[in-house]
Design brief:
With 281 residues, the chain is of the alpha+beta class. It is built from eight helices and twelve strands. 31% of the residues lie in helices and 29% in strands. The longest helix is centred in the C-terminal third of the chain and has 20 residues, at 231-250.
Length: 281
């Protein structure tokens, strides 16, 4: 945790209002999904969490917000929003906010957390898999419909549902710094061939018939520049990855890792029975 920042629940109306303003700073002025101060305040009263990372002067540098409820009789915390000021992203503040959220939930006896993220956003995927140790078994097409956020322009709101088992061996290992070597998976077949490397990479036709217990699924290393310069190609990647991930997850695979590379990064998918009980794999 950066020495000059402290993470704690919001404690005044002014801080809740600062969080609401922060959302528009990150997701655009007039962001329609903005959570108002009153809802943030109620979340802290009813088992949810609305907390911020503050510096010594009281300025907000990031926040996390989630709600807690019953799913099939089990308490689950749903982490609905997390945002970090750009200056804090290189310091790993997003991961610190998530670990804080985990510790609070474990203190309350809650063992599972869920949230969503865009499968094409490699930065988020890296934190979620490599740093936090999530797995994904669910892909939802266009989960939030059309939004007015500039982050969602053109490519829709397809989402992975992150599953974070808070006290699992896998998560404990990641917190202790366990690292998975991508070289171990060099021979794993790739589902989506990359057919062009000049300029932006282009997706070929996915192979949906692979019988292997492990497969790799490519995404562009950086989707934002592609969205700025070639939206049609970004949409091609959305279609190719959507078709691939929906298909393999429906066959009993789960997403276990994310490996960053250039010009494409890779998700590692495994059949559930192929895990072998390795808490760091």
């Amino acid at each position: 945790m950066p020495d000059d920042l402290t993470i704690r629940p919001f404690a005044s109306l002014e801080e809740y209002e600062a969080c609401a303003d922060f959302q528009e700073e990150v997701w655009g002025q007039g962001f329609s999904e903005r959570v108002p101060p009153a809802v943030l305040m109620i979340a802290n009263r009813l088992g949810g969490l609305a907390a911020g990372a503050f510096d010594g002067s009281g300025s907000l540098h990031g926040f996390v917000f989630g709600l807690t409820g019953l799913v099939e009789g089990e308490l689950i915390h749903w982490s609905d929003m997390l945002a970090v000021r750009e200056s804090g992203r290189d310091k790993g503040l997003g991961a610190y906010l998530k670990w804080y959220q985990r510790d609070v939930m474990l203190d309350r006896g809650i063992r599972k957390m869920r949230w969503t993220f865009d499968p094409l956003q490699g930065r988020n995927a890296h934190v979620n898999f490599a740093k936090l140790g999530i797995v994904c078994r669910e892909y939802v097409e266009d989960m939030y419909g059309a939004t007015d956020s500039p982050l969602h322009r053109g490519v829709g709101t397809d989402r992975f549902v992150a599953q974070w088992d808070l006290d699992s061996d896998r998560v404990e290992a990641r917190r202790a710094g366990a690292v998975v070597d991508p070289g171990e998976f060099e021979r794993v077949p790739q589902v989506i061939p990359v057919v062009g490397f000049e300029g932006f990479p282009k997706p070929g036709s996915p192979d949906l018939g692979l019988p292997d217990p492990r497969v790799l699924v490519a995404i562009p290393a950086e989707i934002e520049p592609m969205m700025d310069e070639d939206m049609s190609l970004a949409i091609e990647w959305r279609k190719a990855t959507r078709e691939t991930l929906v298909h393999y997850l429906s066959r009993g695979y789960e997403v276990r890792e994310f490996f960053r590379a250039d010009p494409v990064s890779f998700y590692l998918l495994e059949q559930a029975e192929a895990e072998g009980g390795d808490p760091t794999a």
